């Protein structure tokens, strides 16, 4: 019975194994791949994600990140079904969490579930240290049975397969299967035993279980199960000084890297040598037993033939070649298959290892290659992902052993000479290329060399030729062909050979680049149509500046646009396609040339078919080409955004996801930036489709990869990563907590607050703004246009969208547009909620810090981002975050609104202020700025509907309206020389006045007289402007209506309409005019000369015309509405009989927002009544005591002018008087008008004065 194993021993060995595993990332990745290959497809994705979480914990230097990653991994493992990989990951988690007991139990679960995989590939070290010491009886049983089977063969345990009969071979295979089964069964038994030992700790000694033998083996094991297994192993040579014997990895009599003294075997007859691991074929014969069987003259003859062939005449060379061929035929049985020969050592493999590229090499040779700093495969030149070599290719090693035993061949025999054309023929062709003065001979020699190269059967043959062809004289000879030959076949062949040689030997490239003219020659050949030359140019890597000077980029684009080029017509394949070389070179040029050149090249690419070929390169087998394609496409998208749609439609993104972990940080950032630009399409559903691909496709979790990269990226790089990660996290319905979302938003805010790096601050603010999610067809952000639209400046948004649609020929379906708008709003609300909710509005502190700096670009983008988020606060549930935003940003928004001269900037600040104004706390904070805000709102209300709405709110909320609506006199002009001022009107910054002497005056700002004209012969009673035609209409007592054209400096009379009546109170529409004649009723005059009398039973005093409805205020206090289209008459207010012979007429009518304001007598205590034009109902009144003669109505105020020189100002909403303005008490106010913005009141008086009043 073997000795018992203690809990501390078990934990010590497992801890050592796990520590080594964690310290070796390449080995750990190999173990993960091994496990994943054994798993069902349904478990691949969750376990891959968990393994990435464990990797994050291992690689992170932050304790908090490590703890959160470990907690995440452990919780996910507990919710997934148990399997060997999950147990292995759990052991790593426990080990990292400093729980050795739990780590040991989980690792033993792996051995119990998969004993064969564990001892052979996962943890052979643990198998040696823990299990093997107990299995001495199994190994002795196997050795005894094997000796019995091989009894009778001459070499006993090292017999040759050809000497076995069928029964022996079958018995040996059956024995091996039984041996494997015994190891598996007992691994499980002892794994359970070790788990019991660990669980009980040091409480009591638990004896190890007996070795379990299967049925049929029990009779043979009785004498083997007694005694100490550990001592038995020592007796048979399995004990090494550090107890690290492993029968799995050992060679047969060759230490394979272990100490020479290990496993020393007794030579006595009684001693039996144990097999270290059963093999499916007999053990190969040691070299010292077979060395004498190799024909001694073979190698000597070959060397002589080889040397003589180089120097003899052609006839002698041919004769020797025949001798060589006959010798080769005699020695065929000694020639190894080419797959058994290392291409580096040219010897049969002793310890073959197969790299990830598929090439197999001798371990010692490839290890020396890697130790020299080479990280590429010597043959394929593909980059190796790890410098650690894989395990021995035991399948190939056993095949070689079988072949050696069958052919009685020494393991050190050298491979035979290749069956390709002799080196002498090649040498003659080389001599012709280098020295011949006859062009045709040299050209023929080039073709012969190419044929020899093609006929070389093995890589070893090509290596021999490579040594001969890479000499500088030979390379120069090929270049001479390029300079002098005009034969296309020769030129292409020379380029092909130089490319093949250059791809294998850097010295060839060095030789070619020593002379600039050689490079220029090769470039010219490419430009003239020899596309294969491009492959050679890419190998030479000339300076980018010289390539741009030679206009190479244009030809590269043409090559990519033309898909018909092929190198197959000469029956050879180059190691790289010309179009692949074009992609690599374009990427190199774009990365290194000036900004101006890069912009020009990218624009050219985006406008041609070449971009489609570059998109295809995203799926290229080589990682380098995929990365180059990304680099080109990214620059094209940034330069010409409309190509983004082509790329998004045709690009396969999964190949890029697969290499995301393989490339360097710079390339990884470029790929992530490319992804970020792709999701700036003008359709939300297309963006989400791409995001879903990025999130769900690929072998590894994209989100976890981005998270790991984000935690280690520089500040200026992290914003792009954070933006993409946040979009991926919010793609589904967000969870309450997400490590991805928290890390992404933290990174953005951290960059916003990093005042030492303005570039990172700008990038962070731009990323936040891009999360708004609305883009034009060319990928430009629509954030500003959309926010201006929300601020009431819709014209700029509509104009921009129309230009974009016309420029890109977009025909949007109304249904699709509505669906996109809904999707955009849903996305915007979701993103904004999580941004502002993070750490209770911490993002506003970051934006405020960005706004506090002096960098104009940073201020601008932070202001836009802050405006958007503050606006969204008005749409989101109030959780108190609005107060945090107000504290951080209110002062800045007030400052912009008060001081900025740009209308759009003020509109944006107004949009932000609107969110604060609508809450009591915000109004209180704004109390000291109310007058300044009102002034700005009045200026904006002409272009923004929101300004008008905010004015309403402020007027309702403010307790003292007089403080808000105070007026001051701006200017006054005495025109008494022209009599009374009978009519005034305003249009586009100009004031027009009509006087009782027939004069019309045009005034500029501050009543600066621009023009005075007198074409009417009598008093001008009416002035009105038709805005649709920008014409001024004047009516006079001289029975004419004059139509004036308004220019910048003057007005010109362009038409005179004669009517038969004096004109009072003229109102006009597009094709008619209405006025009050001298008698009763209303005269309707058409511009074609016809006229008719309306409402003739009434003595009309005033008129108002709105949207085809004519309103008449009459002498008897009645008010009628006449539909000019149908002629229908409606009665709004009935007339009253004269009281004591006195009439009470309606003196003034004004219509605004569906309300009719009528100024008349104060029969019921209200001089001004307010009626609804829709149902004729009385909705209010102004209880003024003035004798009102004229009236003007603005969006907020009502102005009443009396016959005693007093003007009352009333608030429309509160129906309260806010102010009285006093003019000359001895004069009457005859007319009133408001400017276009409703900010300036103009009055005309009976004493000939014009006055202007403005809001102070």
Automatic annotation (TrEMBL):
Enzyme Commission number, as recorded: 2.3.2.27
GO molecular function: ubiquitin protein ligase activity
Pathway(s): Protein modification; protein ubiquitination
Keywords associated with the record: Transferase, WD repeat
Residue ranges of every copy of the U-box domain listed in the record: 335-410
Region: Disordered, residue numbers: 237-280
Ranges: WD repeats: 1013-1054, 1222-1256
Uppermost EC category: transferase
Catalyzed reactions per annotation: S-ubiquitinyl-[E2 ubiquitin-conjugating enzyme]-L-cysteine + [acceptor protein]-L-lysine = [E2 ubiquitin-conjugating enzyme]-L-cysteine + N(6)-ubiquitinyl-[acceptor protein]-L-lysine
InterPro entries: ARM-like, ARM-type_fold, ARM_LIN, ARM_LIN_2nd, E3_ubiquitin-ligase_LIN, LIN_N, RING-Ubox_PUB, Ubox_domain
Biased composition regions of type Acidic residues, renumbered to the chain: 253-263
Organism domain of life: Eukaryota
Protein name per UniProt: RING-type E3 ubiquitin transferase
